[in-house]
Known about the structure:
The structure is a homodimer.
Chain A: E1 2-11, H1 15-31, E2 35-43, H2 58-63, E3 64-73, H3 76-98, E4 102-111
Helix pairs in contact in A: 1-3
Amino acid sequence: MIIYEVTLEIDFEIIEEFQNWLIEHVNEMLATRCFTSAEIFTETPKLLPADGANSRDSNHLNQSKAVVIHYKVGSESDLNEYFLRHASRLRAPAVRQFGAKFRAKRRVLKLGLS
Amino acid sequence: MIIYEVTLEIDFEIIEEFQNWLIEHVNEMLATRCFTSAEIFTETPKLLPADGANSRDSNHLNQSKAVVIHYKVGSESDLNEYFLRHASRLRAPAVRQFGAKFRAKRRVLKLGLS
Lengths: 114, 114
């Protein structure tokens, strides 16, 4: 099982508009048929003790919110097809609309210790 | 649904020993009964195009490997209990054994846009 994980750090000033875009965007991602399902999570730093080993510093926490999407991928070739045929097209509108007011980080996670 | 996510960046020189410890560790985590299940993933940067929006820089990729564990949490109070009663005890052995040869980052992910 493979998860294509996208972490979006979203400035508070655009949060509502961005989340509306995101729901639409996840549907478009699924419509490519490169992913079998998707789950949207909100990072909740308040549930983590402040022990200095957290992912984001407190400056970021005061200005932005992080949303994490797990796209389940059926196979490596489905994921490749997404990058080759769909990624640029599906990412462009958010960059046009929100500019530097959000940041994206991406990871591919494969089940197991390889 | 809540995921307690731990990302471990592990230097190659300790990788085998560390992974043996990790399998044992995940079992000990589950034995606390604070989590309902756990999945271990390996980050596979080779499946991601090199477009400058990835989570780790290439220096890190040459010296270390990232492993991500998703611990499913039944409730916020189960997670609190883990932090209060178990976290220090379960984390200490790896710090003693591997020192600075691994780094941990932690996030709590809550299903949905909150």
